[in-house]
Amino acid sequence: MRIHAILTPLLFLGSPAVTAQANLKPLTTNPVVPVANLLAKGEGNWDSVNRGRAGDTPGGIKSITGKSFSDHTVGEVRSMQRRSIYAVGRYQFIPNTLSYAVKAAGVRSSERFTPQVQNRLLKALLDHKRPSIGAYIRGEHGSINRALAALAREWASVAWRNGRSYYAGRGGNRAHITRHEAAVALNRARALYLERTTETSK
Fold first, then answer.
1. φ and ψ at 161, to 5 degrees?
2. Nearest Cα to 125, choosing from 92, 158, 157?
3. What's the number of domains the chain is made of?
């Protein structure tokens, strides 16, 4: 999977400032923005697509269908993935991952594959497929390394170790995002979430 952001300084390090609560809600949109924008730096844009190898379709979905993803339904996108394309959208959802995210997010096949829907699907991955990421942002555990490892396992553009992608050597994948950049984004998201939680509890 594959992201345009201005990186902000680390705003949160160390132990969570808010005690984990069993009734914490899934991630809200704003705290996820730093992570989403960073991923776009390495993955693509809303209309990005590949056919099995990173960078093999520079014109994106418009070069194939003449339309943007916002003009295609989620059902149409999944159908195309079964025939001719592989990774899709800003976060480069591959077929199995898109199917998982659609179910987890409760997205209907008739909905358009818009930026808003793509963001809902991203949040579903952070909350459910890679829960250690969402849990870190919510302050439910303090291991940045667990969250970084999960991020690298889900997105090939995020460095795993020694600056290399977890999927290096497969399908042209390589790391475009350093572990430091990923840590900055995760900690910024965590700080935003904890700040919002503190404000709403007052």
1. -145, 150
2. 92
3. 1
What percent of the chain is predicted at pLDDT more than 70? 84
- Domain for residue 4, yes or no? no
> Domain of 55?
29-200
Whether 19 has a pLDDT exceeding 90, the answer reads no
Phi, psi of 186 (to 5 degrees): -65, -40
**Cα–Cα distance, 5 to 36 (Å, whole number):** 9
Contacts of 103 (CB under 8 A, 6+ apart): none
pLDDT given for residue 172 in this prediction? 84
What's the pLDDT at 190? 97
- Match 């987890």 to its residue by tokens: 104
Structure tokens given for 167: 């999927």
Nearest to 191 by CA among 31, 19, 61: 31
Pairing of strands 159-161, 164-165: antiparallel
Nearest to 111 by CA among 148, 140, 72, 82: 72
H/E run at residue 184: helix 179-200
Query: Is 20 inside a domain boundary?
Result: no
- pLDDT tens track for 27-74: 555 799 999 999 999 999 999 999 999 899 999 999 999 999 999 999
Domain presence at residue 1? no
> Which residues pair with residue 73 across a beta bridge?
112
Domain membership of residue 37 (yes or no) is: yes
Residue 202 pLDDT: 64
